[in-house]
Amino acid sequence: MKKWTLLIIICTFLGACTQSNEKEIIFFVEMTNNEKSQTEIENFSKHYQNIVNTNEPKTLSWKFFDAGENKVIELSRWSDSEAIKTHIENISEGGILQKDFESFVDHYVIEKISVLGEVTEEVRVMLSNLGIPVTFSPLIAGYSK
Question: At CA 119, angle to CA 118 and CA 124, rounded to 5?
């Protein structure tokens, strides 16, 4: 009987860990290389994703992709709007990632941000005030593991 109880507890725990996050938000960011070498872009990309991972636990994923012709795609996944708000506060003046973000814009020119998923009105305003074209596409259906 103890084995069955333990098995039920484990299965319940694993099920809770793999439930989808309906609040997940994905950023698809189109950028160009800001006159940096391939090595500089690769090294900085590794550094930046590590620093975000270390300082922002509600950021689910952060990846950079070589899109050819000096283009870079950043794909980031956030647990919810609060995670995005935290990131914006962290990269803003006085934030813990301010200097890293200054290096970010020294390496990349952000051309467009596509926001996939529901964001709060507060985050929508914060993103719209960046001076970068931003499109918002709410979720119709889907899941994430």
Answer: 135
